[in-house]
Every structure is written in C-alpha cells, then in structure tokens.
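Reminder to self: keep the SMILES exactly as supplied, no canonicalising. Ligand is adenosine-5'-triphosphate.
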Amino acid sequence: MRAIELADVGRAYGERIALAGVTLDVEEGETLAVFGSNGAGKTTLLRILATLLKPHHGVARVLGKQVPREGWAVRGRLGFLGHEPLLYRDLTARENLRFHARLHDVPFARIDELLDAVGMRLRADDPVHTYSRGMLQRTAVCRAVLHEPDLLLLDEPLAGLDPGAAALVAPLISSGTRVVISHDVEHGLAEADLVLGLRGGRVALLERAGAVTPADVRALYV
Ligand SMILES: Nc1ncnc2c1ncn2[C@@H]1O[C@H](COP(=O)(O)OP(=O)(O)OP(=O)(O)O)[C@@H](O)[C@H]1O
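Structure tokens returned for the bound complex:
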C-alpha cells in the first residue's frame, strides 16, 4: 500500500512559492530522505504531510486519506518531529508523555521504557523549561514515537544531540515508514529508499536511493 501520494503539490506564502510541482509516491515501509538548502521547501512539505498546512495546489494523500481534508482520520497515526519540540514547558517530561499517552490510549509503562531508552530517566521529573536543547530533543522523540505511529515525519531528528544521545535515539526512529529531512548527506542516503532533493521549492532530484551518489546530493547545496 502507498503511505504517501503527492500529485503536483504546491504551496505559497503570499507571493512566495515555497513548494511547487511535487509528485511522488512512498510505499509502506519505505524511507523518503529529503534534502535541500535552507529555504528549499523541506519543512513546508513535511508540514503538509503532517496535516498542519494546506497545499494550495495538487493533491496530497497520507495513509490513504487526502490531507488536510481528511486529516482527522490520520493525525493519530502520524509521529511528527519538527523544529519545535511540541512539549508543555511547565510540565515535566513524564507529565507531557502521560498527557500524550492518555490521548492515544498508550499504557504508561511505555513511557518509562522510552525515557530509559533515551537516557532521560533521571531528569524525567524536572520541568521541560529546565532542559538543555539535547534533552528537549530526546523528550520530543519520545513524544513522537510514543503511540507507535504508522508514519514518522522527522525534521533533522538528530539535531542538537551529542553522539551518545544520537546513538540512543536513532534506534527509536530507524524503522517503519518515514520521511526524514537531513543535512547529513551520507547518513541520510544510507537509510533512504527514495531521495527527494528540493531547490527553490521545486523538485531538483527524485530517484531511488541506489541510483543517487553523495555528490548528487551535495550538488543541491551549490
Ligand atoms: N510562515 C511563513 N511565512 C512566509 N514565508 C514562509 C513561511 N514559512 C516558510 N516560508 C518560506 O517558504 C520557503 C520554504 O521554507 P521552508 O521552511 O519550507 O524551507 P526549509 O527547506 O525547511 O528550510 P530550512 O533548511 O532552513 O529549515 C522559504 O522561502 C521560507 O522563507
């Protein structure tokens, strides 16, 4: 089954075209790696897939539903990790995760498992506003994967993590159907099935990963 189907998807902010003419399919179980320089349209695409932004052009289907029109039917099956951690800053990590666990009917035991997995058990009962950037990111990853989503939408998921933390977090976000925005060319390519390169909001590269070299991806940044 197709997890994502995009047909000529575009989006503008006022006069500025952020995304145009994106047509692609991602099959269930595949990873789409998205590359492109700052402002290329990567986050705009991810937000459309997350049902947070309406495309102004074309049709976007996620897990079989048109978004954002039928977004209600897929939102609970998505795991979104954007630039913002989407955590309540005055609550602790554990309280934030309990809130999400209740929403998604997830047993609380999974919260401890995840906090352990990302090395956050000792700080889990401190308010989120006392966390370092890396701690925020670890907690945000826990939130994104808590309900075992059918599709992970990840915007630079290892940003701000030290190598030890990155090694802890990576296994939690390394399987299933995924869209991953990355600036790490080698790592991003290694885990991709399909590669999308954006330039100025347009498709500059769209190939199966086996047909793409690191030099092809680096060319997007010059
Ligand atoms: N809310 C907004 N209002 C106006 N313009 C916006 C808005 N959000 C994004 N844009 C513009 O849309 C274009 C694409 O932005 P987008 O955030 O999708 O890029 P990106 O590839 O994710 O960049 P980065 O690597 O810096 O995160 C840019 O020109 C940006 O300035």
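Points to follow up:
Residues 133-145 form the longest helix (13 residues).
The chain is about 25% helix and 30% strand.
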